[in-house]
Each structure stands twice: as C-alpha cells, then as structure tokens.
Design goal:
Number of helices: 14
Largest sheet: 7 strands, mixed
Helix content: 25-40%
Structural class: alpha/beta
Number of strands: 22
C-alpha cells in the first residue's frame, strides 16, 4: 500500500495530524496505532482511569518501567503511557493546562523560531471548544471540548479555601491572564450533544468523527518496527500486525507521533541516533544523530496522603461501593457524579520564592487516596495532594536494550540527579503540607498516611526518595533546535533525513510549566499547518 502521508502513532498528536491532513480530499493518509480504537467504556468514563492506570492488566497502557533510579533509592519508576487511539489522552486526568506563556518564549529564544507565545496562542484557541466561549485566551469552535467539572467534591473546594488561608489567591482560569493561584481545573470533557460527562480524548475530538473519510486509512493493532529508509530519505514503514509483517510506502512524508519514549526508540531501531549506542546494540547506523533519546525531562511528583471520615470521595468501603454504583447510573443518565470526576479536581501553581517571575511548582489535589499510581490500595477513605517541580534541571535519556522492536525502550529519567531539583521539591512538599494543615482542610483529616508533623528536611528528603515518581509528563527526547544535539528543526523535520518528521511531546526543547496534553495538541495543529505549506511550496 502507498499513501501520501504515513503517521506512526494514533495518540494525541497522531489523531490531530490524521484528521487535519485528511481534510484535503486530494491527499491520502494512513495512521498506524499499536493499540485499539479508544472507544471503550473505560475510556469514555473518566473514572475508568482507575482500571487503566495501574497497568495490571495492561488495558490501553504500555505500562513502561524505568531503569533503577539512584535518586529514588534504587527504585524503578513506573511510566504509564496510552496505547490506543487518543494515546495518553485516553487514560489521563483530562486536565486542560497550557503552561506559562514564558515557556514558549523560552523555546523561541533558544532558536525555535515561530514557537513563541504570540505564535502558539492562536493555535491553542483554534483547537479548543471551551464551554466559557471565545475571548482573548480561549476558543469556542475547535474540536477539543474543554469543560467545567460536572460535580466537583466539596473537599476540592476546601482545598482552594485552604490555599487562600496560607495566602495563595484563588484563580479560576489557569490558562487566562495569570497562571499563579489555586482553583479547579478545566477538563477535556464533552459538555454538549448528549455526551455530557464523557471523556473527550483527542481521538474522540478529532479522529473518531472523520474515520469514514475515503482518503484516511486507520490501522489499529499495528506495531511499527522501523522506518524504511532509502539512503537518507524516509520511504515508508514496516509494521507487525498479529504474526504478519507488512510495509507501507509514503509518497510525501513519514511522521512519527509515538511520544517521548516510542519516537526516539523507533528512530534508533531504524538506524538514526547516537552512533556508538546503536553500534553497541547491533543496529546499523544510517544517520549518526547524537541527540536522539537525550534531553529527557519529566515532572517528578510527590504525594501527600491522608485518611478521612468523609465518604464523599473515592474510597474502599461499603458506603463508597453503594455510592459508586449509584453514581455509575447517574453518570449514564446525565453525565454527573464521581464517575465524571477527573480525580485531580483542584490544583495550584505556586512560587517557591515570592521573588520569582513565574510559578515553579504545581499541585494536583485528588479526591481519593492515590498511592503508587493506584497500584497500592488502602481500605477506607482519603485524599491526596501531588506536588511537582515544573522546570526540572535533571536530564535523562531513552535508549535501546536490544535491537528488538517488540521490547520496551530503555528509560532513564535520572530523577533528582541535579541537586537543585531536590531543593525545589522539598520546598514544594513544605508548601503542600502547609496547605493541607490549613483550617479548611485540617477538619477533613483523620490522620496522615506517611508523613507527620515535625519531620526534618533530611527525613522528608528520605521519604521523597522512597515514594516520589512521575506525574506523566515526559518530553524532549527528539527536541527541536538548530544546534548539534537537536534532533528536529523548528519545522519538526529530522536533521539529515528527508521526508521524516517527529510530531509529539518529544520535540519540546524544555518542559513546559504544566500538564503536557494541551501543548501536544497545539504542536500537532501547528505541524499540520507546516506540512500543508511544505506540500504547496
């Protein structure tokens, strides 16, 4: 088979690209996705994340692990990533956060022309259909539905009150004129047309409505094993579906949308990457590109956890079970109740030092006791608050353990390898505990699960190393730029290889100050524009 564009990976970026490029009926597009169609009830019901996230069993989830992390006491980290159309937007907390405007200006200053805030804001607005309507910061006619939460818990509102009690102001729009403050997150959730309360994954927003286009072929269950290179030009891809091997040709371009782990892995499997690393693993080097897999950045997350007598949260007990069954029926009827909850209902962007020009810490308040990615369960009821350093200094890498495309990539985030991240995360934990101890939240607390009052910095740091892990925002491993370690140029074309682009979070030069799904949608929308311009040049 032959198409104009072959897209590898049907996650957030791939779904956007397939939909946008196939708008032109004279262009043919093939999208290959290793997982399923992303339409099941566990995806549509926001609370389905509880079943998918732990990876036991692996439902719509690659469920990767890192190599042992010295900064985390030698533990292996867990890295859930979406494996279905919609990618990680099929199993995330649905939070719609763009980051701070200065993050994008930083990209532009680093040599990525066209990626400053004034360049990307119109694309963010174009992509969203915000329930609040259109204004300077928001759009109301895009495919991605952005909603207010259907029925947030009272304890989440208490989190906002508690933040105010420690001088953190209320903020009702983290994507508005100011990011700093505490409030309820907006979510990527359907709010109209009979789907109210369902998850609006990027596939549900962009791809599912157009999959009947005659010029668009979507193949699920297709594990791409390499990019077919003819000299230094991408001519197509090879993939495995079941036990059968296939090859698809691309007349115009091959576009990798596998994310921060799978895109660099596929480049390396295809002979594009650090020459020494590839040769040591038996891969023939086609293009020695040293930056492939380098520059991995992620938000390391620490969780404050507490027990409560309040049963208006997600918990394990007879009352909670009855309420959950009741709310399942309620969600099917009108899209409300705890089944519609993103879990992480409240949040805050705060500064570790008042003199900073932008927040450097983010909090996610969860109306449930979340421990080890929901893999460790606690009887009874509780709540938790996550805190992460928004712009970590530590840099990790993604590589190959072997030239086997069916093996997971080697993931080494090198968490806390830079001592500055230790200091910032410790400050973040202190601020989080201050909020949790404010009157509006203290009244909910029965007891803390792990931490306690009076812990020294050394004791807290030991505890951080024992329990911290990702909050699911890996980026940077195919970063754009113009220097020798850049993998793609600002047009997202792979340096030194023709007809090959990478379009996903891996191209981010630096991690943005917030959740990464909305920025990934923006990157793909912008890439679609650039690809169309290149085709007409």
């Amino acid at each position: 088979m032959e198409f104009d564009y072959v897209i590898v990976g049907g996650g957030s970026a791939g779904s956007v690209l397939a939909a946008r490029l196939s708008e032109n009926p004279s262009v043919t597009v093939c999208l290959l996705e290793a997982g399923g169609d992303g339409k099941g009830i566990l995806v549509r019901a926001p609370l389905g994340i509880v079943a998918m996230l732990p990876g036991r069993p692996k439902i719509n989830n690659w469920a990767f692990e890192t190599v042992p992390q010295p900064g985390l006491g030698g533990r292996r980290g867990y890295q859930p990533r979406g494996r279905a159309l919609g990618g990680s937007s099929a199993l995330n907390a649905m939070l719609y956060v763009r980051g701070h405007p200065s993050d994008y200006d930083d990209w532009a200053r680093s040599g990525c022309d066209g990626w400053g805030w004034s360049d990307v804001l119109p694309i963010f607005r174009r992509s969203e259909r915000n329930v609040r309507g259109s204004d300077e910061f928001h759009g109301a006619s895009g495919p991605l539905e952005v909603a207010e939460q259907r029925s947030p818990r009272e304890i989440s509102r208490a989190f906002i009150d508690a933040a105010a009690e420690v001088q953190i102001r209320r903020n009702d729009d983290f994507n508005g004129p100011e990011q700093e403050g505490a409030g309820l997150y907006q979510v990527t959730q359907f709010w109209r047309d009979g789907k109210q309360g369902e998850r609006c994954s990027v596939a549900a927003a962009y791809l599912h409505p157009v999959m009947n286009r005659p010029n668009l072929e979507v193949i699920t269950g297709a594990h791409v094993t390499k990019v077919v290179l003819e000299g230094l030009r991408a001519a197509g891809v090879a993939y495995r579906k079941g036990r059968d091997e296939h090859e698809i040709r691309a007349r115009a371009e091959v576009i990798l949308c596998g994310g921060a782990f799978n895109s660099p892995q596929l480049l390396m499997l295809s002979g594009v990457g650090p020459g020494g690393h590839l040769r040591a693993r038996g891969v023939e080097v086609v293009k020695d590109l040293p930056g492939v897999g380098q520059n991995l950045q992620d938000h390391l997350d620490f969780i404050y956890a507490a027990k409560t007598r309040d049963t208006d949260v997600l918990g394990l007990g007879a009352v909670g079970a009855f309420k959950l069954i009741r709310d399942m029926l309620k969600w099917r009827r009108d899209g409300t109740g705890i089944v519609a909850s993103p879990g992480a209902e409240g949040g805050a962007f705060v500064k570790s030092d008042p003199g900073l020009d932008r927040p450097d810490l983010q909090l996610h308040f969860v109306a449930a006791l979340v421990d080890d990615h929901s893999r460790k369960l606690h009887m009874g009821y509780g709540y938790s608050c996550h805190v992460c350093v928004l712009r970590p200094f530590s840099r990790g890498e993604v590589g190959l353990d072997a030239p086997d495309p069916m093996r997971a990539p080697r993931i080494d985030p090198k968490y806390l390898s830079d001592p500055r991240d230790e200091d910032l995360l410790l400050k973040g934990v202190r601020i989080t505990r201050e909020i949790m101890d404010a009157p509006s939240l203290r009244r909910y607390r029965l007891k803390e699960v792990y931490t306690r009052d009076g812990m020294s910095d050394a004791e807290l740091m030991e505890h951080i190393r024992a329990r911290a892990d990702t909050i699911y925002h890996p980026v940077g491993t195919c970063r754009m730029g113009r220097d020798n370690m850049a993998v793609t140029d600002p047009e997202l074309r792979v340096h030194g290889v023709q007809a090959l682009r990478v379009v996903d979070a891996s191209v981010m030069p630096t991690l943005i100050g917030g959740n990464t799904n909305a920025p990934t949608v923006m990157i793909a929308e912008k890439a679609a524009d650039m690809i169309r311009v290149a085709a007409n040049a």
